[in-house]
Specification:
alpha/beta; 261 residues; Rossmann fold; 2 domains; globular; Arc Repressor Mutant, subunit A
């Protein structure tokens, strides 16, 4: 059986998470659940579970901070980030700390079941690999050494800065060759890092961020579609509308009219 920890600062949300995932069906013991991230971190450090499900936005310690502290202390548990659409940028950052996956609130039963099944298959594969190769402690040691070596590479540090810069300057032209040169990296290297670390392409990542920003503006402001296009880095309003429809299935005006969450 696998062990899991679930952390969310809202009691009723925590209870909902625990009810939604089919723990026993996928070979998990009933999870240790807490609304206190500090207590959750203590539990994780004292007895590392196989998986941690954590809310990204909590007042005392964010899920991102908790994940970072766990990794700094050598915890190799698989992390699943639970977030809202407004936490998209935080979720991307968490994935850079080798989180296994993320799921959006409100949780839907089918998505939760599919994610837990995928996680269980991943854990099964890890156990098989450990039995065939080395003790679990040795596997953890090697993973930590690899992680330390990666963080020491200045190229990857610059890549992290590049990603942060993109998120802060979505209203500006962000051509791959220009943004790569700004951080002294080659476009091919940046493209490879996006595929390897974020499982996406540069253009897909940029468009996803811009469309999420556009969705927030459509929900929360009365700006015109043309203004929102400009504010999200699209010089051509018609092109923006085509990209928006491709990403969401509806036009910007339909999105605003329907009051999408």
């Amino acid at each position: 059986m696998y062990r899991a920890v679930v952390i969310d600062d809202e009691k009723w949300t925590l209870m909902g998470i625990c009810r939604t995932f089919p723990w026993e069906q996928e070979g998990f013991d009933p999870p240790f659940a807490t609304t206190d991230p500090s207590e959750g971190l203590e539990r994780i450090l004292a007895l590392p579970p196989d998986a941690v499900f954590v809310d990204i936005r909590m007042p005392e310690m964010s899920g991102f901070d908790l994940l970072a502290k766990a990794r700094e202390n050598g915890v190799a548990s698989e992390f699943v980030i639970i977030s809202g659409l407004q936490d998209f940028e935080y979720t991307r950052a968490a994935l850079q700390y080798a989180a296994f996956d993320y799921i959006l609130k409100p949780l839907h039963e089918e998505e939760a079941h599919a994610l837990l099944h995928k996680l269980r298959l991943h854990l099964d594969g890890q156990r098989s690999s450990v039995r065939l190769s080395a003790p679990l402690e040795e596997v953890h040691r090697r993973l930590l050494e690899q992680s330390a070596n990666q963080t020491e590479k200045s190229e990857e540090d610059r890549f992290s800065q590049l990603v942060h810069y993109i998120e802060e300057h979505l209203d500006e032209p962000l051509l791959l060759r220009d943004i790569s040169a700004r951080f002294y990296l080659t476009p091919n290297y940046v493209s490879c890092l996006f595929r390897e670390r974020l499982d996406t392409t540069y253009s897909e990542y940029l468009n996803a961020l811009r469309i999420h920003k556009a969705q927030r503006l459509l929900r929360n402001t009365q700006r015109s579609v043309e203004d929102i296009a400009q504010f999200c880095g699209y010089a051509d309003g018609r092109y923006f509308s085509r990209v928006f429809r491709k990403q969401t299935g509806i036009s910007p005006m339909q999105y605003r009219k329907n009051g999408q969450p």
